[in-house]
Amino acid sequence: xxxxxxxxxxxxxxxxxxxxxxxxxxxxxxxxxxxxxxxxxxxxxxxxxxxxxxxxxxxxxxxxxxxxxxxxxxxxxxxxxxxxxxxxxxxxxxxxxxxxxxxxxxxxxxxxxxxxxxxxxxxxxxxxxxxxxxxxxxxxxxxxxxxxxxxxxxxxxxxxxxxxxxxxxxxxxxxxxxxxxxxxxxxxxxxxxxxxxxxxxxxxxxxxxxxxxxxxxxx
Length: 219
Ligand code: ADP
Ligand code: NI
Prior knowledge:
The chain is mostly helical.
């Protein structure tokens, strides 16, 4: 199977699995991360395009928030790629990306080592910020019955996966800006992502300023 066919078959597989998912991890998230990863890879000549695109498409194949087994994602990615007979060295590199790309409530301390992994992580985090990032936070909040905001609910950050999971139950959507979204800009790896993140970050800061002003009836 040629590279293009491997990529398009994987895109079809991921689309079928995530169609209609409502938590912000739907097919269109995978699609945007895939497209962003291609854009970022254009400026990183050493990146292997097949590994980058497969890593982007499969990075959320099993979500940490809904699985207790950390290996569920890497295993599912491997199983799929083996089923279409992808070469072992490519599978191992994709599996590495799937294992380590997630933010996990701020508890993922693994420093991504490969350029393809850095690109996928940048693309995934770019999709969490800016205009789309804002939309995703409130979509997620709605799905989990969380309030938009509560001035009495103090801003929190998390040290463990258990705390982060508890935070999903207790927190507000606005808290998510402080526990994650506003922290992402400074963790971008590639120069292209750093530039895009600056702009998306400014969009969120302006949005929050407006949000608080409207909350108190000032605008
Ligand atoms: P990752 O897959 O990198 O670990 P997450 O699954 O934590 O990232 O988050 C993906 C997106 O889902 C976030 O960027 C956000 O839009 C939404 N989301 C996740 N957790 C929360 C939360 N506690 N509150 C609001 N939105 C959330
Ligand atoms: Ni993602």
